[in-house]
Amino acid sequence: MTKPRSLCAVAFMLLAACSPRGSFTPVPADRAVSITESIFVGTTRTQDAEEFGFGRSEQLSFLRYDISIPTNRDPGELSWPPRTRAPDPSRDFLTAREVIFTDPLTFRAALSQEVRATNTTSAVIYVHGFNVNMAEGVYRFAQMHYDLQVPAIAAHYSWPSRGSALGYIHDRDSATFARRGLEEMLDEVAAAGVTEIVIVAHSLGASLTMEALRQVSLDREDRVMRRIRGVVLVQPDIDVDVFRSQVRDIGNLPQPFVIFGSSRDQILNLSARISGAPERLGNLSDVRRIDDLEVTYVDTKNFAAGSGHMNLATSPALISLFRGIEDIDEAFTADEKGRVGLFPGIVLTVRNATDVVLAPVVVIGEELAE
């Protein structure tokens, strides 16, 4: 039984390795753009030639990207310009502007100016996951930030993922290496005048995030911790026992603390096999392993497509579900056990304070018909 699964896993990884990769492509000089998202970036990638690759830097670099959002696409879709035609702002994610800041002070000043210009003191920091290059992380966050209509400044921490489907061990080591950089990024964002920070971390980025929060707590950096007003882990690639240990060291978790998981996540199923563990935090089959913790676990397996490793960002139904929802925690922890109508077309089942299951109405109808 194990041999076919291993062959399937290898085949899946090879297919992923052959997929077109994202890259920073400038908007053509003769084309206008209508929608842009500004992304402030801190990265521990080394700069090779004119790009930030997968080498590890002990010093943070700071940038800003203005990303052109195409109008001709479906929510959740992230499209790169093919080599067969010229870049088209109506169909492709493109780079309208790139700014590389000379030092942390100039980055902080630019971020402070954005706080004043947008009249907001809230920021979302996105931490990408496994097998992501610099451009893909920035573009994915721009897509998520726009599609989810997040009313906050967008900041992205880009750690040195190899950007290869066969680079899992490199990425796990890089996530460990990059913890200090995320701590410094949090400190810079707070110093720029941001008073409310929400961290959204995906896959291995969730492991990195938990380690950074653990260190900030152990160092008693209250100035930073008290500004973290929520954490969202999207299909986190973390050993469950390690997660429990991290929570114990952190103490009081920032609230709300929401985990989006899916037992149909092929990447995490493979990660579990590589690790010799039955499952990871992001593909739990039994949430009783964490039901004593102050977290909300949201099961999104009914929305899985493809590898099922990024449901929240790629599923149009989930994007529609969370667009405009300002208090996710309150919506999930209401007393009703099963509801239709809170979110159009969705059945939300609250099984206990920790476990929430989301499913399209059509899926529930199919189950009842069987």
As laid out across the biggest beta sheet, the strand order is 3-2-1-5-4-6-7-8-9-12-11-10
Radius of gyration computed on alpha carbons: 20 Å
Uncertain segments: 1-18, 334-344, 361-370
Total strands: the figure is 12
Oligomer: single chain
Dominant shape = globular
Query: Major β-sheet, in short?
Result: 12 strands, mixed
Kindly report how far apart the N and C termini lie.
Answer: 28 Å
Order of helices and strands: HEEEHEHEHHEHHEHEHEHHHEEEH
| Count of separate DSSP helical elements | 13
Work out the helicity level: 25-40%
Mean pLDDT: 81
What percent of residues are in strands?
Answer: 15-25%
Strand pairing plus helix content: what structural class?
alpha/beta
Structure description:
By secondary structure, this protein is of the alpha/beta class. It has a domain at 21-234. Helix content is 36%, strand content 24%. It is built from 13 helices and 12 strands. The protein has helices spanning 2-17, 104-118, 134-147, 168-177, 179-191, 204-218, 222-225, 240-250, 266-275, 311-314, 316-322, 328-332, 361-369, and strands spanning 36-48, 51-68, 94-101, 122-127, 153-158, 196-202, 228-234, 257-261, 296-299, 338-340, 346-350, 355-360. The chain has a 12-stranded mixed beta sheet, with helices on both faces. Helix 8 links the parallel strand 7 (228-234) and strand 8. Helix 4 (168-177) runs parallel beside helix 6 (204-218), helix 5 (179-191) crosses helix 6 (204-218) and helix 6 (204-218) packs parallel to helix 8 (240-250). The longest helix is centred in the N-terminal third of the chain and has 16 residues, at 2-17. The chain is globular and about 55 Å long. Residues 1-18, 334-344 and 361-370 have low confidence and may be disordered.
